[in-house]
Specification:
This protein is of the alpha/beta class. It contains 33 helices and 26 strands. It binds phosphoenolpyruvate (PEP) and magnesium ion.
C-alpha cells in the first residue's frame, strides 16, 4: 500500500509496482487529500487498506505527516486487524518495487520487508555513496559492515599489496569484499588476488571494504589499518616504460599452449642487417651470439580419451598442488626478499576464485582441465592488459606464467622447459619474459636475453637483474621476426640490439664491453677510495638512503657520507609519527653508519607522490603543485620541530646538515632558519651543546633555481633534486609513463638551471650537490661534473661505478662537454653527445678491444 502526499505520485508508484509484480500482488494507493490537493488523510489510508483485501499489508509512506496519518489510520482498526498491517521504513519507490518483486516471486512478508529496507543499497553502491562504518543487511540476512579507506600507495593496489590484503583477510572468519569508489558497481572478493588487482585502484582512490560474518568488524579494522599504512611500502617502484603497452602474442617456455594471447595485428617485416632495435636495459653488459627464438604454439590438441569432469577436476587440483610446491621451493631458494615475494604472490593465483571458478564451470561443461585452466588464465591476463595502471598491466605475465606452469603439469611436461639446454653463445629471444624463465635461465649458458615486450617494472625484469648476462626488454615485435641463428649483438648498458652487426660495430661494442668490464673491476676494487678528476679536483660521491640498513650498505660501497637522507621513509607504514626520541635514535644510527662522513638530513618531504596518511593535506586537484614538502611541514610546525630537535641532538656528536625540500621562495627558507636557530638555542639552554648546523635547500622547483643568487647568501648549501626539477621544468609528471620521454633531466633546459645554480653558488662559495636520479646516470655524470657540481648523491649500488667514471674524467674536457650540452636543443641531442664522449673515453682507455667471438 502506497501512502503519499501526492495523489499522482501514489498512483505512479502503484503503476510501477504492477509493471514489476504483475497482477498477483494486490496494491493500492492513498495519495493526497483528494485527486488534486496535496496532503495525507487517515480515511483514504483506511480505504486503501480495505481495497487490498485480506492478508498481511505492507504500508510504504513518503514523508512527515504520511507516517502520522498511517499510524492514526491503524488506531481505527481492531487489534487483530492491526496486526496484519506493517508500516515499513523504506524508500517509497525503490522499497515498493523491491517488496513487490519478492512477493511476486513467492517470497514471504519478512523477506519483502528486508528487501524494501535495503532497496537503496544498489543505488548507494552504484554512486559510491554508501556511508562509512555503516551496517547493512545482505539479502541472505547477514549483517554487513563497511569502511572506506583511501589508498596511499603511489603505485596503487598492485600485486604485492593486493596479496597482503588476501593473506590478511584469510586470517578472519568473515566474508570480505572490496570496491573501488571510482567504479563501485564492481565488487572484488578478498579471496581473489586477481579480482582485487583488477579493481584498478590507484593512489588516492577510496576503497570500500565490506565484511559479513562473526569476525567481520575485526577484519575490517585490520584491513583498513593495513591500507592506511600503505602496506609498509616505501619507495614507489621505478617509472614504467612504454614498451609494456603491447599485447602479448607469443612467449617463451617452448610448450604448446592452447590459445596464447592475441598476436600483433600484422607481423612486422624482419629487421634488415645493420638495424638497431631500441629497448629497455634491465641488466648491464655487452654480448654477441646467434638468436634462438622461443615462442608458444597457437593451439593444443588434447591427447587421449575424454575423461569425466570429476576426473579432470581432480587432475587440475593435483597439478595446482604440484605447482604450489614448485613455487614454494622457488620462494625458499630466492636470493632476495623481493624475489621471494614475487613467487609468494604467484602462489596466490593457484587459489584464486577468479581463475578456479571459470575453470570449474568449463570442466563441468566437458572441457579438458588443461584447456579450461588456460582459458581462465588467458581471460584474466587479458583483463590485466586492459588496465590503465602500467604496473598492473605487467601482472598479466604473472598470470600467464602460473597458467603455463599448471598447464605443463596437466599435459605431462616437465616443470621447466623439458630439460632443454641452450647452446653457449645463444641470444635467447622471447616475446615476454616470465619469472619462471628467469629461474630456468640461471643455469643456461646463454649470452644474452631479449624480450619483445615488457618493462623495467615487470616481475621478470626485477628477477633478471640477478642474471649475469645482459637482458633487454621492450624491444618491440620486430625482434620476433628474426630468422633463427641471426647473428646479433646486445648492449645491455644502453638497451640496444644490433641485427647482424658489421665488423666496425662489433669492434666498437667489443671496446665498450672491455671498457665496461674494466670499469666494473676497477670500480669494485677502488670503491673505498675518494674520487677525483684527472686534474685533481675532488667530487664527493655520497648516498641517498632512507634507513639505517641502507646507510650501512652505502658505507660498504664507498659512500662518502649520506647526501640525502629521505627521512619520510621512516615515517611511512607506522600508525603514528615517531616521537622525537625515536627519531633521534634512528638518525643517530644513520650518522654512525657513515661516520666520520657527514649526513645531510632532509626534513620530511611528503605530499605529491609520497603521501603520508598521518599528515595528509586536504584532497587536492594537483598534489604535485600543492601542499607538499616544506609547505606541508610549515603547516604542521610541531612535526618540523620534532624532526629538527632530534636532528640537532645528533648534530651535537656527528657532522649533520639539514636540508629543506621543495623550497620555492626566500621567505620559506628564512622562516625555517629562524625556527631552527630558536630550537637550537632552547637545546643549548637545556644543556645540549649543539654547534651551528648548516641549513641547505633542495633546488627542485624552477623558481628556486632562477633566484639561486638571492637564496645563496641565506642557504649554506644547495642540493639539486633533479627528479622534481625536471618534472616541473618540462611539465612532465615524473610518475606518468605517458610523458616519460619528456621527463629527461639531461634536457638543456634543466642543465641550464643547474648551471645557473652552480654559478650563483660559486659567487657565495656554497657547495652544490645533485641528489636526483641524474647523479648516477653515466651519461649525465661527465656533464654535471663539467658544470661544476661538487657532490653527487645516489643509490648506494651505483657508487663504485660512478667513482670509477669520475676518475677517468679530465677537467677541461668535461667543461667543454658541459658547454656544448648547454647549447643543444633537446635531451636526445645531449644524450648523443654524452655517448660520443663516453665512447671516446673507452677508446682512450685502451682496455684491449679485441675481436669479439661469434660475429660474422
Ligand atoms: C628529487 O626530486 O630529485 C629528489 C631527490 O627528491 P625526491 O626524489 O625524494 O622527491
Ligand atoms: Mg624531490
Amino acid at each position: 500500500m502506497i501512502v503519499s502526499h501526492s495523489h499522482r505520485l501514489a498512483e505512479g508508484v502503484v503503476e510501477l509496482v504492477r509493471q514489476v509484480a504483475g497482477p498477483t500482488v494486490p496494491v493500492a494507493a492513498a495519495g493526497g487529500l483528494d485527486a488534486e490537493q496535496i496532503g495525507t488523510s487517515p480515511e483514504r489510508i483506511l480505504e486503501a487498506i480495505r481495497q487490498v483485501g485480506e492478508g498481511d499489508v505492507l504500508v510504504l509512506m513518503d514523508l512527515g505527516s504520511a507516517l502520522l496519518s498511517a499510524e492514526m489510520a491503524l488506531e481505527f482498526l481492531a487489534p487483530e486487524e492491526r496486526q496484519r498491517i506493517r508500516l515499513v521504513a523504506a524508500p517509497l519507490v525503490e522499497g515498493a518495487v523491491a517488496a513487490a518483486a519478492v512477493l511476486a516471486a513467492g517470497g514471504d512478508v519478512e523477506g519483502a520487508v528486508r528487501e524494501a529496507r535495503e532497496a537503496l543499497r544498489p543505488k548507494l553502491d552504484h554512486l559510491g555513496e554508501a556511508p562509512a562504518g555503516a551496517t547493512t543487511v545482505e539479502p541472505g540476512g547477514a549483517e554487513v559492515v563497511r569502511v572506506e579507506v583511501v589508498l596511499p600507495n603511489p603505485a596503487g593496489l598492485h600485486a604485492r599489496p593486493a596479496g597482503q590484503l588476501v593473506r590478511e583477510a584469510a586470517r578472519f572468519d568473515a566474508r570480505i569484499w572490496a570496491r573501488n569508489k571510482r567504479q563501485p558497481q564492481r565488487r572484488a572478493s578478498l579471496a581473489s588476488l586477481n579480482e582485487l588487482a583488477l579493481l584498478d585502484a590507484r593512489q588516492h582512490d577510496t576503497l570500500i571494504l565490506e565484511a559479513s560474518g562473526p569476525q567481520g568488524r575485526e577484519a575490517l579494522e585490520a584491513l583498513a589499518a593495513l591500507v592506511r599504512a600503505g602496506f609498509g611500502e616505501i619507495d614507489p617502484p621505478a617509472s614504467p616504460t612504454p614498451g609494456g603497452d603491447q599485447e602479448a602474442g607469443l612467449g617463451p617456455g617452448g610448450a604448446a599452449v592452447a590459445g596464447a594471447g592475441p598476436a600483433p595485428a600484422e607481423a612486422p617485416a624482419p629487421p634488415a642487417p645493420g638495424t638497431v632495435l631500441e629497448g629497455v636495459a634491465v641488466t648491464p653488459g655487452v654480448a654477441w651470439g646467434r638468436t634462438v627464438q622461443r615462442r608458444r604454439a597457437q593451439a593444443w590438441t588434447p591427447q587421449g580419451p575424454d575423461r569425466p569432469p570429476e576426473e579432470e577436476w581432480a587432475r587440475l587440483e593435483a597439478a595446482l598442488h604440484q605447482v604450489a610446491a614448485e613455487l614454494a621451493a622457488l620462494q625458499a631458494g630466492a636470493d632476495a626478499a623481493e624475489a621471494a615475494a614475487i613467487f609468494e604472490a604467484q602462489a596466490l593465483f593457484l587459489q584464486d576464485p577468479m581463475l578456479l571458478e571459470p575453470a570449474r564451470r568449463a570442466v563441468e561443461a566437458g572441457q579438458p582441465a588443461a584447456v579450461a585452466w588456460l582459458e581462465a588464465c588467458r581471460a584474466t591476463a587479458a583483463a590485466y592488459r586492459e588496465l590503465a595502471n602500467p604496473l598492473l598491466r605487467q601482472r598479466a605475465a604473472d598470470v600467464e606464467d602460473v597458467g603455463q606452469r599448471v598447464f605443463r603439469r596437466l599435459t605431462g611436461q616437465a616443470a621447466d622447459p623439458a630439460g632443454e639446454r641452450l647452446e653457449p653463445g645463444t641470444i635467447l629471444v622471447v616475446d615476454e619474459l616470465w619469472p619462471s624463465d628467469v629461474a630456468w635461465l640461471r643455469d643456461q649458458p646463454v649470452a644474452a636475453v631479449c624480450a619483445a615486450q615488457g618493462d623495467r617494472t615487470s616481475h621478470a625484469a626485477i628477477l633478471a637483474r640477478s642474471l649475469a648476462v645482459p637482458v633487454i626488454v621492450g624491444l618491440g615485435a620486430a625482434i620476433l621476426q628474426l630468422p633463427e641463428g641471426t647473428p646479433g649483438a646486445v648492449d645491455g648498458l644502453r638497451g640496444r640490439f644490433y641485427v647482424a652487426p658489421d665488423d666496425g660495430t662489433l669492434q666498437a661494442l667489443a671496446q665498450r664491453a672491455a671498457h665496461w668490464q674494466a670499469l666494473e673491476r676497477r670500480a669494485r676494487n677502488e670503491a673505498g677510495q675518494p674520487a677525483a678528476l684527472r686534474g685533481g679536483r675532488r667530487v664527493v660521491v655520497a648516498a641517498n638512503v632512507g634507513t639505517p640498513e641502507e646507510a650501512r650498505e652505502a658505507a660498504r660501497l664507498g659512500a662518502e657520507g649520506v647526501g640525502l637522507f629521505r627521512t619520510e621513509v621512516l615515517f611511512v607504514g607506522r600508525p603514528q609519527l615517531p616521537d622525537t626520541a625515536a627519531q633521534e635514535a634512528l638518525y643517530r644510527q644513520v650518522a654512525q653508519a657513515v661516520a666520520p662522513h657527514p649526513v645531510v638530513l632532509r626534513t620530511l618531504d611528503v605530499g605529491g607522490d609520497k603521501p603520508l596518511p598521518q599528515l595528509a593535506p586536504a584532497q587536492e586537484a594537483n598534489p604535485f603543485l600543492g601542499v607538499r614538502g616544506l609547505r606541508l611541514t610549515l603547516q604542521a610546525p610541531h612535526v618540523l620541530e620534532g624532526q629538527v630537535r632530534a636532528a640537532l641532538r645528533v648534530a651535537a656528536d656527528h657532522p649533520l646538515r639539514l636540508l629543506l625540500p621543495m623550497v620555492s621562495t626566500l621567505d620559506e627558507l628564512l622562516t625555517v632558519r629562524r625556527l631552527v636557530e630558536g630550537w637550537r638555542e632552547e637545546l643549548q639552554a637545556e644543556g645540549v651543546a649543539v654547534p651551528p648546523v648548516a641549513l641547505g635547500i633542495m633546488v627542485e622547483v624552477p623558481s628556486a633555481a632562477l633566484v639561486a643568487e638571492r637564496l645563496a647568501p641565506h642557504a649554506d648549501f644547495f642540493s639539486l633534486g633533479t627528479n622534481d626539477l625536471t618534472q616541473y621544468t618540462l611539465a612532465a609528471d615524473r610518475g606518468n609513463p605517458g610523458v616519460r620521454h619528456l621527463a629527461d633531466g639531461l634536457h638543456p633546459a634543466v642543465l641550464r638551471l643547474i648551471g645557473q645554480v652552480v654559478e650563483a653558488a660559486r659567487v657565495h662559495r656554497r657547495p652544490v650537490a645533485v641528489c636526483g636520479e641524474l647523479a648516477s646516470d653515466p651519461e649525465a655524470i661527465p656533464i654535471l661534473v663539467g658544470l661544476g657540481v661538487d657532490e653527487l648523491s645516489m643509490v648506494p649500488q651505483a657508487i663504485p661505478t660512478a667513482k670509477a667514471l669520475i676518475r677517468q674524467l679530465e677537467e677541461a674536457a668535461t667543461r667543454d662537454l658541459a658547454r656544448e650540452a648547454l647549447a643543444l636543443a633537446t635531451a636526445a641531442e645531449v644524450r648523443a653527445l654524452a655517448r660520443q664522449f663516453l665512447d671516446g673515453l673507452a677508446t682512450k682507455d685502451g682496455e684491449g678491444p679485441g675481436r669479439p667471438p661469434g660475429g660474422d
